[in-house]
Amino acid sequence: MYSADVERRRKEEDNEYGKSDPYISHLENRIKEVQDQILSLKSQNSERIAELNSLQRELESFREDSAITGEIEDFLDDFDRRVIVRSSSGGSYVVNSSNKLIKEKLYLGQQVALNQRNFNVVEILPQAIEPFIKNMELENRDTGISYSDIGGLESQIQEVRESVELPLLKPEVFVRIGIEAPKGVLFHGPPGTGKTLLARAVANETKAVFIRVVATELVQKFIGEGARAVREIFDLANAKSPSIIFIDEIDAIGATRMDDATSGDREVNRTLMQLLSELDGFDRRGNVKFIAATNRVDILDPALLRAGRFDRSIEFPLPNKTARKQIFKIHMRNINAENVDVNALVELTEGKNGAEIKAICTEAGMFAIRRDSEIVSHEDFMKALFKLNYKDQDRINTPDIFM
């Protein structure tokens, strides 16, 4: 009797447990869902806190006063706390450095940020090369110009290759001979005679870094800016060596210095003196070469022309008969021309430079287009020469192609 009651009670308990098992599973699933929601909310909360902190930092940055860039000129104590700075606006000021910079090492010429109100030094700026200086470097040196594209300048090409390429490619030759390789080369001659064209060919032919500078870019408004630009150009060249610096129209900063100079002239003179200092600072047989070009060699300062700065002065004269014929052949090799008497054109272009001969070839092609022809004739070249000589627009027929 007793065993029967026990068995009956066990069956009842099993039935009760079977009825409660789905409810327990439901509660367990619900607990998991709530836990997942809690984790999701914590993650969202962390994201919102991070977003809030970011917005607060951005708001604080907008509330801060803007800073002025400047440069350290001198120190007035042994702890570098009292300094003389020159702001980008041109003035020099005696200021204090921020307490945040106690552990920082300051030095002359360092670029810093100045408080807009009291000009105190509040931050040290990255000492990077100015962007406009960096952009002077030709990243893609494929200019499309080779030595074979230059006519009538065989001797000039030979001198350039000896003065610029050879010291970079075979410096041991100069060591064996016992002479110092040329430091710089000066191109001079009338406009349109191929000075810049030869520099472009050098950039294309050499594997060295080519830095192209127009001298007018070194004429700056504020005192010392031009000299600093020159210094940074040579720093860039040294960092990228082997390299070639080409300064076009150097007469913009290299003209003879005068006693009765204005304030603007004096700033140009400072830039010139920095350039002279950098030229003298080259190491022997160094991997930095210097090329300059000018149409006015007669006005250049004698200090710039002396040996040791420009070891070779290469003249680019107006092309003679042989050179003009070579130039015509170079510019006509891709022109679809027939029955053109090149010798007659050479005789008629006495006194013309290479740029003008190229203009004649281009204008002859334009006359063929006006005739709606695909072939350039000798008559087209004669019309182009006539137009270049006399600029007589009334004697040129109106093109039918636009009628």
List keywords for this structure.
Rossmann fold, five-stranded parallel β-sheet, 10 strands, alpha/beta, OB fold (Dihydrolipoamide Acetyltransferase, E2P), five-stranded antiparallel β-sheet
Notes on the structure:
With 403 residues, this protein is an alpha/beta fold. It has four domains: 14-64; 67-124, Beta Barrel (OB fold (Dihydrolipoamide Acetyltransferase, E2P)); 133-315, 3-Layer(aba) Sandwich (Rossmann fold); 321-402, Helicase, Ruva Protein, domain 3, CATH 1.10.8.60. The chain is 47% helix and 14% strand. It is built from 13 helices and ten strands. It has helices spanning 2-63, 131-134, 154-169, 171-177, 195-205, 225-239, 251-254, 263-280, 302-305, 321-332, 342-348, 354-370, 378-390, and strands at 67-75, 82-87, 92-96, 111-115, 121-124, 184-188, 209-214, 243-248, 288-294, 312-315. Strands 3-2-1-4-5 form a five-stranded antiparallel β-sheet, with no helix packed on it. Strands 7-8-9-6-10 form a five-stranded parallel β-sheet. A hairpin with a 5-residue loop joins strand 4 and strand 5. Helix 12 crosses helix 13 (378-390). It is extended. The chain starts with a helix and ends in a 13-residue tail after the last helix.
